[in-house]
Design goal:
2 domains; Alpha-Beta Plaits; four-stranded antiparallel beta sheet; about 300 residues; Rossmann fold
Length: about 300
């Protein structure tokens, strides 16, 4: 459904894309994952026809983007990171009278489609409210509704939940899950928990290049690395400096008094880790071997170093 080959895009000295290639199968929810500045938004802009690459090619449903005479607008629905609206319009007016006619949908068909989408995105009760009074989560859901007006086979969602509070994030992610199998979704994000929750496929991008692309479960299995979680009541102090230098440790992260230590070999790591914790007189509440998450895979593949 989506195919990219060797895209290059520069902005002065900055290489936003550096030979990016990827493919998205029909019906997939594809997590396009990378840190801020990795090239995700630039890729989305090229796929939606809002920017042109310096070199490389891209296709939506075998239609090449940027070729004179090729119009892909009917094939894609786009939700930018910060969608904008006419604040004086109501949600129903915006979908029925503004968006639907852009796709040659008029009259009763436009009205019916607007009401159907407002029901889907749980904005039916707010259909006659002015958009200017909507919360950020409501605006994101309305943005998703406008992307679906013409029932496109491909949805491009650029950081759809990054600025939302937990309640708003859940609302939008639940909505994306209901679209699984109905359309192909390319979801750009830097929030790993969201990818683990809703995505079938994962592509990890860094510095404008695709590092790896695989099914979520296969990616976790492929890059499984032994991992210890250590919870301490009094923090970790200088122990973090010591553990980050050990040859059997590949990555260390700390959050809320819990250290996650990726190691190369459980047998080689367990004894010295326990001995070092005891020698530092740390009050260890929990020492446990756990299954790695997508975050651990991401940190390993993007080359993040130990972070005390």
């Amino acid at each position: 459904m989506i195919r990219i080959e060797n895209l290059v895009k520069t902005y002065g000295p900055v290489h936003a894309l550096d030979g990016l290639s990827l493919s998205v199968e029909a019906g997939a929810v594809y997590g396009f994952l990378g840190p801020n500045g990795a090239g995700k938004t630039t890729s989305m802009r090229i796929l939606s026809g809002l920017a042109r690459p310096d070199s490389g090619r891209a296709w939506i449903l075998d239609k090449e983007i940027g070729i004179p005479g090729t119009d892909i607008r009917s094939l894609i629905g786009v939700l930018p990171e910060e969608p904008t609206f006419y604040s004086w319009m109501t949600a129903r007016e915006y979908l029925r009278d503004f968006i639907a006619p852009l796709y040659k949908i008029h009259g009763q068909k436009a009205a019916g489609r607007a009401d159907e989408l407002l029901e889907i995105v749980t904005l039916k009760d707010a259909a006659n409210r002015r958009i200017g009074g909507f919360s950020r989560g409501m605006r994101q859901r309305l943005g998703l509704a406008q992307a679906l007006v013409h029932q496109p086979p491909v949805l491009l969602l650029d950081e759809p939940v990054s600025a939302l509070d937990p309640a708003g994030r859940k609302e939008v992610l639940d909505l994306i899950e209901t679209l699984r199998g109905q359309t192909t979704i390319l979801l750009s994000t830097h929030i790993l928990a969201d990818v683990e929750r809703v995505c079938d496929m994962v592509g990890i991008i860094a510095k404008g290049r695709l590092i790896v692309q695989d099914r979520r479960e296969d990616l976790l299995a492929r890059y499984v690395t032994p991992l210890f979680e250590i919870e301490s009541d009094n923090g970790f102090g200088h122990w973090l400096e010591w553990v980050g230098k050990q040859p059997f440790v590949t990555n260390v992260t700390v959050s809320n008094h819990t250290a996650r230590v990726l190691v190369t070999d459980v047998e080689k790591a367990q004894k010295p880790l326990l001995e070092s914790l005891a020698s530092e007189s740390l009050r260890v509440r929990r020492f446990e071997k756990v299954h790695p998450s997508l975050e651990d895979v991401f940190l390993r593949l993007t080359g993040k170093e130990a972070q005390p």
